[in-house]
Design brief:
By secondary structure, the chain is α/β, with parallel strands linked by helices. It is built from 13 helices and eight strands.
Amino acid sequence: MKKFVGTGVALITPFKEDRSVDVEALKELVRFQKQNGINYIVVLGTTGEYATLTKEERELVKQTIVEENNAELSLVLGIGGNNTQAVCEQIKTENLEGFDAILSVSPYYVKPTQEGIYQHFKKVSQAATLPVILYNVPGRTSSNMSPATVARLANDFENIIGIKEAAGNMVQAMEMISQTPKDFLVISGDDMLTLPMVLAGGAGVISVIAEGFPKQFSEMVQLGLSREVDEAYKIHYQIAPAIDLIFEEGNPAGIKAVFKKLGLAEDYVRLPLVEATENLSAKISAFVDKIK
């Protein structure tokens, strides 16, 4: 699955002042990714504020991105939850035209055992007609997918092709890389650990910061994949301060402040999220000016 090697971005959903979906800004954001070296786009993930969108809005976001993308980049659709039956039903009934894979988060809140996680993704695999990328993010789900469970799923189901690994644990990431089949994609879900994971054998990243600085971040990932370590780390250390900034008050408030500064979209979010404070927005603005 070479189409998912490199830099993917978890795209935001831009809103107007009345908090309706800003379709024109969304189109502009897709163009911005296409023009600046991004390899694929993840649609309706956490960064896209999926939880606060209606069914009709989700479909609007999907179709806007599919049409504007015009089959130029690979597209991944987020479909996950903590009700296995409901997730599988959504996978079976969702309009997947224009998409190349599904990103499915490990069940959150209910804190399943490793066997429960395995059985959940077994059902997801059986329901899916597209390749499945697992998503491990213990900070949001309150449970961790162990390397052994990931390796078991990778070996047992051909259509489970990779994992977005966002535990923030480099040792665990290396164990996943070493224990899974050679063609299984271990993708960084932590922007700060992207380059170390790539150099350890990872397949790249599904990033938040990269959608705001796509040219620089995608170049860093490609340099890492090519083992041009010194040049890659120059970019890493240039971008690193922005990674801390955009997550300082939660996601996607920080990255939306980047887009506002760039003039690509407003920074509105939906409750219970709130926009970045004036202080953080000023720091982000100063960083954007510095890196241009």
